[in-house]
Amino acid sequence: MMSYSNSNLNISSAQLLRRHRRNNLTDDEFGKHLRLQFDRFSESGLSKHAQLQKALQNSIADGKLKPGDQIPAEKNLAQLIGVSLGTVQRALSKLSSSGVIFRKHGRGSFVADEPRAFVRFINEQGAIMPVSMRVLDRKIIHTKGSWYDALGTDPMGFIRIRRVFNVSGFFYCYNEYYISVSQFPTMIDHPIDDSARLNWILVDETETPILRVQQRVGIQKLSARICHLIKVNRGSSGLKLELVAFSFDDRVVSYQQSSIPENSYMLDLSVLDWNPRRAKAH
């Protein structure tokens, strides 16, 4: 394995990276960062392609590579890291299949955008209905439920945030949002107001990119407590919407469930996965 030092990133290697960077790092700094990330896993028992995969994932997680950034060409990566072209191709193939990057024929590989999951209601005119939110409470819980099945075991418990959504004054929805305390301890006291988008707080504050979401919907009888909170008759039925967000290696980031009463409006569950329009040729 090649050792790394500043001098090992020669002028030609730095030039290979110059047109790929869109942040304030110099080419030398990014090259050194990627090589150090690669070397971190040298004693982990991972194969070289898995080491490179982890190195690129970490570069995305810590903001050295941002959504829309072009990944250096395969031959350039092989030269920079000191591995074979096949190793680079296997690493990029794994990242592509998991949605971390996307590939455009004739242009190269790009960092995928974070998916934006929309739960939107559409009125009779086809317009999106404005929604406002009120945070009810936030607490640490240790009980088991559907969130436990999604997030797994955490001896420190789960942070639960309960909210009510007002859909243009026509009806209300109830939402419970769960994350693991051990994964996101800073979220216990992080300021949350009535305009907060919780998953994007995780992205911004903890550098945990959300790479995909899973949504499921079913019919349920609403509990008396939920009926009271969303101002419908006791015994009413409604939709139960579950949303699970995933990060690297399909690790679950958050789980949330919403209760939606019967109403006359269309529910749009669009998910914008990764936006290739953000990837520009440099």
Can you offer a commentary on this structure?
28% of the residues lie in helices and 28% in strands. By secondary structure, the chain is α+β, with helices and mostly antiparallel strands. The chain folds into two domains: 6-111, Arc Repressor Mutant, subunit A, CATH 1.10.10.10; 116-275, Chorismate lyase. Helix 1 crosses helix 2 and helix 2 packs across helix 3. The radius of gyration is 22 Å and the shape is elongated. 30% of the residues are buried.
> CATH homologous superfamily of the largest domain?
Chorismate lyase-like
Determine the N-to-C terminus distance. 31 Å
- What's the number of structural domains? 2
Major β-sheet annotation: 6 strands, antiparallel
Q: Compute the number of strand runs.
A: 12
Under CATH, the topology of the largest domain can be stated as Chorismate lyase
Tally of contiguous helical segments? 8
Shape: elongated
CATH architecture of the largest domain: 3-Layer(aba) Sandwich
Structural class based on helices, strands and sheet pairing: alpha+beta
Key attributes of the depicted protein:
6-stranded antiparallel sheet; elongated; two-stranded antiparallel ribbon; alpha+beta; 282 residues; Chorismate lyase; Arc Repressor Mutant, subunit A; disordered N terminus
